[in-house]
Amino acid sequence: MRKIVRRPSESGQGMLEYVLIVVFIAVAGVVVWRTFGDNIRALVVQSNDAIIDQTAPVLNGSGNTGMKSLR
């Protein structure tokens, strides 16, 4: 008769790897946000202003769109 050899449980290893990946992505996201957050916000505001400036005369003819900028 053949003996059944049981290996140590590895069921938690896969979950731990996924948790480590998620933690790494979260930390990387926070670092990117802290490093480039102000630059990204400035670009979005600039793009928003450019879009409003280009579309304002078309929307109602007076240049007043009633939209708020991101500032």
Rough shape? Answer: rod-shaped
Low-confidence stretches: none
Count of DSSP-assigned helices: 1
Helix content: over 70%
How many extended strands?
0
Largest sheet: none
Residue fraction in strands: under 5%
H/E element order: H
Helix vs. strand class = mainly alpha
**Distance separating the two termini:** 78 Å
Round the mean pLDDT to the nearest integer and report it.
81
What Rg do the Cα atoms give? 27 Å
Keywords:
single chain, 1 helix, 71 residues, mainly alpha
Write the layout of secondary structure elements.
Elements: H1 11-60
Describe this structure in words.
The chain has one helix at 11-60. The protein has a domain at 35-71. The protein has 71 residues and is mainly alpha-helical. The longest helix has 50 residues, at 11-60.
Quick structural overview:
This protein has 71 residues and is mainly alpha-helical. It is 70% helix and 0% strand. The protein has a domain at 35-71.
